[in-house]
Right handed beta helix region
Amino acid sequence: MDRQISIRNGGSAGGRITIRGVDASGRIADAEILGSRAAPWEPNAHPGSEVFRLRTGADYLVFRNISFRNTGDGSFRVAGRIRGLHIEDVSAQNVRRFFEVNPGGAEQSASVDDLTIRRVSVRGYSKGAFRIRGDSSNIVIEDVLGDSERQDGDNFAIGVALEGTAHNIVLRRVTMMNSHDSRNEYWNGDGFTTERGVRNVRFEETIASGSTDGGYDLKSSATVLQRPVAYDNKRNYRIWGDAMIVDCVSHDPHKRGGSGLQDHFWIAKGARAEVSGCEIEDFDEQTTVFEVESGGSLIVQNSSIKTNPSGRLSLVREGGHLQITSGQ
């Protein structure tokens, strides 16, 4: 298919409408939606089309047992203001972006309230797996896998991107892998990002790996990471806002190209981060464990740090603050 399906109506809080795949006998089975995106995709090839465009009024819908292949910027696109959307037991292969919040047509804004995404896998994306924007709120994303499979050339690949004033969000057992972007001198490509204006985000047992920039690149306020894992990213944790990181794992940062240092933790100017109970480990002498910009503050408590003796424990620029206490 090469055109979207627009939905303007839905159910109610007490009567959700379910759209799901079944076989010819009516038994539950994945329904495959095949798009026109180039496969394998490369820069300047056909990007594909969005599929489901959810406009204002498309409330309390449930999508289950659907498989997308070769689709464009939004297997699901929230193009208006909706609520009560559930997406469960869905997979996608080779997409520009799987889930998008972006106003369209006469809509001046787009957002989703009461969003649940469970048991979803997205394999092969050039732009991202999920982008949630506007004043979206009350969101749970859990048991989800995103792997870009190193599709490169669509400028700034991100696994999960939270933007606008999105708030009250939980990501639980979400894994984002291999976001890759080598288009610019500074290689971008992140596992998870939150922008300024986003607030009250909680990461629980999430994993970020293989990104050409940040595993977690977070500008939000009131951000908590509980038992997160980051490895094989250029900078495993990049904090621009305020964040509390508890019982984390940070292993083996890996710079694949472009400018910038290879770090476990990078703290921006004016940012504040508290790290406790973490396991920090690698043996590459090119790694800087803690990089703190001027005006940034990082407190590390009760954490294990095992690195190459020839590597650099810290790079704290003038006006920055790093405090490491006990448990080393």
The two ends are 57 Å apart (CA to CA).
